[in-house]
């Protein structure tokens, strides 16, 4: 009997040791609010055709105004010698939907070596998105007015059959996720530890295929040859006392032997992600390059921010065709009391649409349109995990012509909401 009890105790001790070396955490966010806004749009028409302002209004109880609602699992196992295995699986959820809607945000596995860094493989945040998350004055919320992370919430900004947000393609520069792609699949990333205030990130994306050509015409006829999605990214951060700096570059490519000059380029993630959706598929016939620079300084009473983004998407088969987005944004974030946090930002930007597409030549090259926006917000912290929020944002686009002699298009929107967010 004593031997049996001794054996049972030994097994229990070993199990406790194994448990101490491995851990799995369930985490998430539920965010619900009363959110609405007004959209004003004029659509360019033919010469001498009358156009009016199209107004769309909305107000409703929707999710993910301040943070995307989500649930995730992450774990780490101590392998000894300063080496650990880790994983993350995170999916977005929509509490305002009548049916369960989930979309993968991140799903990766990797190894971490103390004093070196982490090696991660799978669907992950892009290098630029990780940098934006660490350098944004408003916490990268999903409301309008922010020209670095574009989005809008409320019934006025969504399709009738969906609770997800979508600015759509008619805003020409104010479309969801126009400034950068947030996530990518098929990625391998290295994140270094911090050395003398510096840390670095490097990513390689690869999903390439090269088929044997079996019919006459070969790759030129769209059979065989390359059909590839790939990319590269680099990021460097520096922290010195209360100053934080970051510089980032990424290029994602979607190449196909079937793409002709008349195949319009589509940027990675545009209109389908914007921090509220899933890991998205590749773009179409595009070389999608972006730069993100940011700085912030903590003055004690407030933290000041500066952000700059530049993105250019060029047709992989016809380099003269491209679209370009740039924005400069400043902001502040401050705790006026231990429970009350306020933030504000203002931005200006430019958007260059691609030329009117033709297989042989550009019929018309549109001019660059000017963008502007601002956002104000406040959080009231009931606890470390629960807060109430109020956010107001506005952004607009100046007149934009898309064909010679046509009437211009313009767009103006405001977005407001109050809500509650709980993290676990």
Report on this model:
The protein is mostly beta strands and 424 residues long. The protein has a single domain (27-213, 222-423), classed as Porin. It contains 2 helices and 18 strands. A hairpin with a 2-residue loop joins β10 and β11 (243-256). The radius of gyration is 24 Å and the shape is globular. Mean pLDDT is 83; it is low at 1-20, 159-170 and 271-279.
Kindly state the number of beta strands: 18
The CATH superfamily is known as Porin
Query: What's the rounded overall pLDDT mean?
Result: 83
Helical residue percent band: under 10%
Strand content: over 45%
- CATH T-level topology: Porin
CATH architecture: Beta Barrel
Low-confidence stretches: 1-20, 159-170, 271-279
Main sheet: strands, sense, barrel:
16 strands, antiparallel, barrel
Please state how the strands of the largest beta sheet are arranged side by side: 1-3-4-5-6-7-8-10-11-12-13-14-15-16-17-18
Q: Give the termini distance in whole angstroms.
A: 45 Å
Shape: globular
Class derived from helix and strand content: mainly beta
- Helix segment tally: 2
CATH class: Mainly Beta
């Amino acid at each position: 009997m004593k031997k049996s009890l001794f054996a049972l105790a030994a097994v229990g001790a070993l199990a406790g040791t194994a448990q101490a070396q491995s851990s799995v955490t369930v985490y998430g966010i539920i965010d619900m609010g009363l959110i609405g806004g007004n959209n004003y749009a004029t659509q360019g028409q033919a010469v001498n055709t009358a156009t009016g302002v199209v107004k769309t209004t909305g107000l409703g109880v929707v999710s993910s105004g301040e943070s995307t609602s989500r649930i995730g699992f992450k774990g780490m196992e101590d392998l000894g010698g300063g080496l650990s295995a880790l994983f993350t699986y995170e999916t977005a959820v929509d509490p305002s939907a009548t049916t369960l809607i989930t979309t993968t945000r991140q799903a990766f596995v990797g190894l971490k070596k103390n004093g070196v860094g982490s090696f991660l493989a799978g669907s992950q945040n892009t290098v630029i998105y990780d940098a934006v998350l660490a350098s944004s004055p408003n916490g990268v919320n999903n409301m309008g007015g922010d020209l670095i992370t574009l989005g809008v919430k409320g019934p006025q900004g969504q399709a009738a059959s969906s609770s997800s947000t979508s600015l759509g393609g008619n805003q020409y520069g104010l479309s969801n996720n126009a400034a950068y792609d947030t996530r990518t699949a098929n990625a391998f990333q290295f994140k270094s530890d911090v050395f003398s205030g510096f840390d670095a990130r490097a990513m390689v994306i690869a999903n390439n295929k090269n088929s044997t050509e079996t019919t006459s015409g070969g790759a030129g006829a769209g059979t065989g040859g390359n059909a590839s999605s790939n990319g590269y990214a680099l990021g460097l951060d520096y922290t010195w006392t209360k100053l934080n700096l970051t510089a980032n570059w990424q290029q994602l490519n979607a190449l196909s032997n079937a793409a002709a000059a008349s195949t319009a380029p589509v940027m990675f993630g545009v209109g389908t992600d914007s921090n509220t959706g899933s890991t998205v598929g590749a773009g179409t016939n595009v070389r999608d390059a972006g730069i993100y620079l940011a700085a912030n300084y903590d003055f004690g009473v407030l933290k000041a921010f500066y952000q700059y983004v530049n993105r250019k998407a060029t047709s992989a088969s016809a380099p003269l065709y491209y679209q370009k987005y740039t924005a400069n944004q400043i902001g502040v974030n401050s705790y006026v009391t231990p429970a009350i946090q306020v933030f504000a930002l203002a931005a200006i930007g430019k958007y260059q649409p691609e030329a009117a597409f033709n297989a042989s030549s550009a019929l018309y090259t549109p001019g660059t349109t000017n963008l502007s926006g601002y956002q104000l917000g406040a959080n009231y912290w009931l606890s470390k995990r629960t807060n109430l929020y109020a956010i107001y944002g506005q952004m607009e686009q100046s007149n934009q012509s898309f064909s010679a002699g046509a009437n211009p298009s313009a767009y103006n929107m405001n977005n407001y909401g109050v809500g509650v967010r709980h993290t676990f």
